[in-house]
Amino acid sequence: MLLLILKRIGLGLITLFIVSLITFVGVEVLPGDACTTYLEREAYGAALDACIKRLGLDVPAYERYLDWAANVVRGDFGYSLSGEMPINEVLGPRVKNSLVLASVSILIGIPLAIVLGIITALWRDKLPDIMISTITIFSMTIPEFISATLLILIVAIWLGWLPGIVIIPSDATFYELLSNIILPVVAISMIMTAHMARMVRSSVIQVMASDYVQMAILKGVPYWKMVFRHVLPNALLPAINVVALTIAWLLGGVVVTEVVFNYPGLGRLVIESISNRDLPVVQALAIILASIYVGINLIADLMTLMLNPRLKSLQIRK
Amino acid sequence: MENNLITEDIQKNKLEKAFEILKTMASKPSGLIGLTIVLFHVVLALISPYIAPYDYKAISPNTMLLAPSAEHWFGTDSLGRDVFTRTILGGRTALTVTFFGSLIALLWGGLLGIFCGLVGGKIDDVVMRVVDAFLSIPWILAMLLIVSLLGTSTEVLIPALGFFYGKGIVRVARAATHDVIAKDFIVSARARGHSNMSIIWNEIIPNVRDAILVEGAMRWSWMLLGFSSLSFLGFGVSPPTPDWGLMISNARGLMSFAYWSVIAPIVGLSSLIIGINLTADAFAKALGIDRSTKAPV
C-alpha cells in the first residue's frame, strides 16, 4: 500500500520533470531566445546585454536548466521581464484570485452535479432526465467564450442585473472579489457541472442494475434508503477520478473565461505573458499549471485507493 | 480471378457496413439531428464562396453596424462588412482547419499508439511518460506558445492543432492494440510467417480502427473548440480571414447595441460543435463503444 502511494508520487514527479524539460527545450528550440523575443526590434547594444546578463543567457543551456530547476524546486521562479520584478511577486495575487474563483465554482458545482446526476439517473428517460440532459449537453459542448459572452449579453446588458466586465486590480481584497465573480463562477461551474452530472448519471445507472441493488429491492429495503445506503456510496466512488480530470481540464477553459470577464487570475496572466513575450513567466506558468494537474490526479488516485478496499491489492495503471 | 471476386465481395461488404452504421446512427433522434447539422455545415462550407452575396473583406463606412435587413440578412459589423457573408465563410475556415488537423492527429496518434502497443517494454514506457507529460500541460498554454513564436498562419495552426490533439489518440490506440495483440489470429499470423508490417496492416489496424475513429471524431469537436478559442483570444487566424472566434471577439465590445454581429457567429459555432458531438456520440453507439463514462482529457 505504502509502496503503491510512493510509486504514484514518483510517477507524478517524473511527469513534472519531463514537463520542465519539454518547456525548457521548447523555448530553446523555437526561434529566438527570451531576450530577443522580449525586446523584439530593440534587441541590440546595452539593452540586450543587460537582459542577457539578468537572465544569465551567456552560460550553456544545460547549466541554465539545472540552475533554473534547482531554483524552481526551492520555490523561486526567476525574474519577469515585462513586470521587472521577481516572478513570485507577479504570481502571488494571481494565484489567490484564481483560487477564489476555482474554489467557489467547485463548491457550487460538485454538489449541484451530484444532485442533477442522481435525479437524471433515477428518472432515466423521463421528463426531468430529458430536460436536464439536454441542458447539460448544451452547456458542456458550447465553448467557454460563447457561454461567457452570452451571459454578459443577457444578464448584464439586456437585463442589467450585474456588471458585465469585472474591473478589479489584481491585489483586490477577498470581499471586493466576491461581489464581482458571480458571472465568471456561473460560466465555469456550468461546464464543470455538466461534465460531472453526466458522469454521476451513468455511474448511478450502472450501480442500479447490479445484483446487490436488485437483492436490496427484493429484500424490501425502502427505495430512498436503498438509494442512499447501497447505490450512492458505490456510484460516487468512480466519479472521483473524473471529477479530478474535469477540474484539471478546466484549467485551459478558465484561461478563456478569465479573459472574457477581465478577471485578474492565473489564466489572464497566461495570455498577458504570451502577448508580452515574457518567456520566463510562460515557463513558470507551464510548470505551475502542470503541477496542479498532476497534483489533482494524484490526490484523486489516493482518495480512490483509501476509499476502495478492493483496489488496495491491485496495481492501478491508467 | 477467385481472389478478385473475394476482394470485390469484401469491398461491397464494407460499403454496406458503412451504410448500416449510418442507418443506425440516424435511427435515434439525437444522431439524426447531429448528422443533419454536420451535413448542413459541410454543404454550406463547400458552396459558401459561390453563394456569398458580398465580398467578405470589403470595408465601407456607409454600411457600419446596420441592423439586419433585406440587403444584409444578419446586419453588418463595425467595419461595414456583411455579417451573413462572413458567417457562412467562417464555417469554411473552421471546417478546413479542423478537418486537416484531425487527419494529422489521427495519423500520428494512431500509428504511434499502435507501435507502442506492439513493441511494449522500455520504449513504450518512455513514450507514454512523454505523452502523459504533454497531457498535463494545459493545451491552451502550449498552443499559445507555439503560435506566438511561429506565427498565426494556417500552415502553423493545422500541424500544431494536429499534434496537440493527437496525444490523446496515442493512449486509445495503444489500449486497443493491447486488447487485440494477444488474440489467436495475431499469433497464427505470426506462425504463418507474416512480416510485422503485414500484421499491423492486415490484422491490427482493422481491429483497432473503430476505437481510433470514435476518438478522432470526439477530438474533432474539441479541436474546433480549441481552434475557435485561439482565434477568440487573437492567436488564431489573422484578421481579414472570416472566422467565428475572431468575429465574436471583434463584435463583443459593441454587443450592447449591435448584438446581431455577435449572435450570428455564436449560432454558427455552437450548432457545428453540438452537431459534431451528437454525431460522434451516435457513431460511438453504432459501433458499440460507450463513451459516457470518459472524462474530457
What does this protein structure show overall?
The complex is a heterodimer of chains A (318) and B (297). Chain A has 318 residues and is mainly α. Chain A folds into two domains: 2-73, no CATH class; 92-276, MetI-like fold (Orthogonal Bundle), CATH 1.10.3720.10. In chain A, 77% of the residues lie in helices and 1% in strands. Chain A contains 15 helices and two strands. In chain A, strands 1-2 form a two-stranded antiparallel sheet. In chain A, a hairpin with a 4-residue loop joins strand 1 (79-80) and strand 2. In chain A, helix 5 crosses helix 9 (182-208), helix 12 (239-260) crosses helix 13 and helix 13 (266-275) packs antiparallel against helix 14 (279-307). The longest helix of chain A has 36 residues, at 87-122. Chain A is globular, with a radius of gyration of 24 Å. The model of chain A is unreliable at 314-318 (pLDDT under 50). Chain B has 297 residues and is mainly α. Chain B has a single domain (17-53, 67-293), classed as MetI-like (MetI-like fold), CATH 1.10.3720. Chain B contains ten helices and no strands. Chain B has helices at 2-26, 29-51, 83-119, 121-136, 139-150, 154-181, 184-191, 196-233, 244-252, 260-286. In chain B, 44% of the residues are buried. Residues 292-297 of chain B have low confidence and may be disordered. At the A-B interface, helix 1, helix 6, helix 7, helix 9 and helix 12 of A face helix 4, helix 5, helix 8, helix 9 and helix 10 of B.
